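WARN no homologs supplied; continuing
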Amino acid sequence: MKKILLLALILFVNKYASMAQNEQKSIPDTTIYVLAETMAEFPGGQNALFSFLSTNISFPLEAKAKGITGTVLVKFVVEKDGSISNAKVIVPLYPACDEAALRGVQSMPHWIPATKQGEPVRSYYSIPVAYHTSKAEMKKACKELKAVQKR
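OK structure emitted
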């Protein structure tokens, strides 16, 4: 009788353990890493990232005309497939600059995702977008803005 109870207990524990493992596999991993074994990377590296951003983020004419200078910090998630999600401005500068920086980040191509134990993982990434202008550029922007407003 003890052998039968022991055998039943072993079978029950094995069945329960395998069910628990199956349930764990079906639960999606929503962890977003700040640090991983290998960090997410823009295709082509940092130079390619800065080149992409400088080409795809414009300095809003209104902000340039007002002489706005500074940095917008945009934080986002690089997903397991390399896509960008949850982009948001965490250090704003000026509304038009914030919007331009956010649009540029959201338009980025897929990244090489971060990895942990050889598997792709979700990770955070932050990008500073700097806006600077000279007095000559500011004057030129003021003229352009006035011309646009007259239309």
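The chain has one domain: 28-150.
OK
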